[in-house]
Amino acid sequence: MAKKENIEIKGHDGPARLGEIGEMKTPTILDAKSMKICPDEAMAYDVPLSLAEWSVEKTLEKAEEYKNSFKIEDTFGVVHGAKYSNLRVECAQNLEEIGFKTLIIANADELVRRPRDIAEILSDLRESISPNTALCFPFAEASFIPVLSYMGIDLFSDAICEFYSYLNIMMTPGSSYNLEKYQIYQLEQKELFEYNKKTMDLVTREVRENIRNGTLRNLVESLSCSSPQNMSLLRVLDKNHSDFLEKYTPLY
Q1: Three-class SS of residue 136?
Q2: Is 8-158+222-246 assigned to CATH 1.50.10.140?
């Protein structure tokens, strides 16, 4: 993805952001193979503080080292910090100072299984960095995109579409199905990949229109009725982060 412009926010629905990056409307799905990611120091999620601090330190060193070897406006900085929200914020703010305007959340596959952590880390990040900085959450199922968008995530990737196609898993806007157990369609791997991409495209279009109409919260609540994952995250957000949710919510 070539991003020659910063994200321009056109509207809010709670923390959710309706934006534009050049001609691209956000929230949206990116082609994972076209994403240029700055070298970083990967680290597991559930590690001691000292290891997480080392990962952040080395990630920032690599970002400084390599920033002149690529177009920084076209490149994703990686937000490390493991399970420590303060380290995530520190890493993101330093990446912004280096010049990155688009940041990708590390350990996303772990975060989606931890509603308290994802609520704390994403809300702290969104409130601590510039509104002109776009956040990317890779590897999110289609059904999880609305609540992540509600928290202020701007970008997603289609990497999960290809991965699920190898596992014979079909994504719908509200759920995911193993086609060996739920014989909804008989699709080849390539066909399933394309189907999953179309599902994610549909979901992000639905999210954008709900932000535009001020009804994203309604969509998130309706999806939570059939998804324990969405329900748990929404409950944590309402209980522990109500100020964050209400910051951009209009009063009637």
Answers
A1: strand
A2: no
